[in-house]
Amino acid sequence: MEREVRVRFAPSPTGPLHIGGVRTALYNFLLARKTGGKMILRIEDTDQNRFVPGAEDYIRESLEWCGIELDESPWNGGPYAPYRQSERKPMYMQYAMQLIESGHAYYAFDTAEELDEMRERLKAAKVATPQYNAITRMTMKNSLTLPEDEVKKRLESGDPYVIRLKVPRKEEVRLKDLIRGWVMVHSSAIDDKVLMKSDGMPTYHLANIVDDHLMKITHVIRGEEWLPSAPLHVLLYRYLGWEDTMPEFAHLPLLLKPDGNGKLSKRDGDKLGFPVFPLRWVDPFTSEVSSGYRESGYMPEAFINFLAFLGWNPGTQQEIFSMEELANEFTIERIGKSGTRFDIQKARWFNEQYLRAKPDAELAGYLLKALEEHNISCSPEKAEKIAGLMKERVSFPQEFWREAAYFFVAPTEYSEKVASKKWNSQAVAVFSDFRNELSTLSDFNADTVKDLLVSILERHGMKIGQVMQALRLAVTGAEAGPDLMQIIEVIGREETANRIDAAISALSQYATA
Ligand code: GLU
């Protein structure tokens, strides 16, 4: 019988979620939705030293913002609760004991000093990567080297110990990765990983395997940085007797810096000129602020569409996909093998597409909010009209105010470049007539205003192209923008006349010729 697809996103709350992590969560979610399976979130917090306050809430808020829904999680529960590993602490020891009993794990009593000593000794003997492994374990203090009664005594007297996996010395470990194909690793490259720490907490490796098994996970989709751990995980499944139901693995290609040199990392913060986090993050220890996509004006749908394409493609020309469309199209087979370069221009492009597809009335909301902050009143109809005029010219919602302020506030500065080229006495003569005759129009709209301007230009023996830029300068102060006649219609006749007057006096030094 086909098993129900169950995938999990398993972040550690050691800081803000990186965009690479969001992509991992997204691909898991898409597979779950595509197959009618379940998306699980598990918090992997066994490393208490790396705990960062606020990180878990940040993860939750980020996924909610992105529209990545969870079927089971610490926040909405589920049949395999708890979903936070620290709360599952009592469950892990029995599996470590099972491994000890079957001869696949052992107690190790070495102190930190003894471990250091071993590493130094190996370094001196020119061993490239000194490790606790099949060779060195026999020189250390553990239940394989100490007499049985001493082991017993140490355990009974509460001597600190860890439990290590007994990795075979010579064995080929194979695993089939859904993205990379067969991956082969020789067991001599794997060290005797600690499974249980001396504080009674499992390590990531043990907890991850036990939980994926107990939570009936069918596919492990995670970042490529976990590929080196995968053979060890295969050994754990095998020794625990769970190989039959071992999940399938898919290790996602790395997200690379824009120049292709190296992995895009959390530490890049804002250094590369764009956010690496979905939401703004304030470091609780240093108060350092890192920007987020949300606060930068990215819409979640655009952000998700962009992330989906960083490593996956549908094999067609279509680029704009809703979450539902992504879920329908998504397959692991179409995930690329090689790292994907990060391209913030593409993110911006997606944002523009989504922004333009929104109804003017919705976009007007962004403008109205900014106007309220600036204590400027504006009717919803007017805001809608302006949003419609501006939407092809902005990439982010906050730009509606920034780029369209001249609809509300008369210019106080004029582009010097345009003034010196386009402002002259002929234009001023046309504008004087124009501002005076605006009052004669019985119907004031873009068309009637344009007709008026054209008839005045005819009288002066001029063409519209000769004055348009200068008129735009007078009315908006800017070099470019949407249709000027539409702008004038929105601004109104009185304000237009006032602005022309102001420009004529402010730019008089250019009107000598
Ligand atoms: N807790 C690991 C992380 O923080 C999860 C790795 C995995 O998915 O197995 O990325």
Commentary on this structure:
This protein is mainly alpha-helical. It has 5 domains: 6-74 and 204-256, 3-Layer(aba) Sandwich (Rossmann fold); 92-196, Glutamyl-tRNA Synthetase, Domain 3 (Glutamyl-tRNA Synthetase, domain 3), CATH 3.90.800.10; 266-357, Glutamyl-tRNA Synthetase, domain 2 (Orthogonal Bundle); 358-409, Helicase, Ruva Protein, domain 3 (Orthogonal Bundle); 410-513, Arc Repressor Mutant, subunit A (Orthogonal Bundle), CATH 1.10.10.350. The chain contains 19 helices and 13 strands. It has helices at 19-35, 55-66, 93-101, 112-124, 148-156, 204-214, 230-239, 300-308, 323-329, 344-357, 360-373, 380-390, 399-404, 416-422, 425-437, 446-459, 468-476, 484-491, 493-506, and strands at residues 6-9, 38-41, 105-108, 162-165, 172-177, 181-186, 194-196, 219-223, 248-252, 255-256, 281-282, 289-290, 340-341. Strands 3-4-7 form a 3-stranded antiparallel β-sheet. The chain has a two-stranded parallel ribbon with strand order 1-2. Strands 5-6 form a two-stranded antiparallel ribbon. α7 (230-239) links the parallel β8 and β9 (248-252). α1 packs across α9. The longest helix has 17 residues, at 19-35. It is elongated, with a radius of gyration of 33 Å. The termini are far apart. The relative contact order is 0.09. The mean pLDDT is 96. The site of glutamic acid has 8 residues, from α6. Glutamic acid binds next to α6.
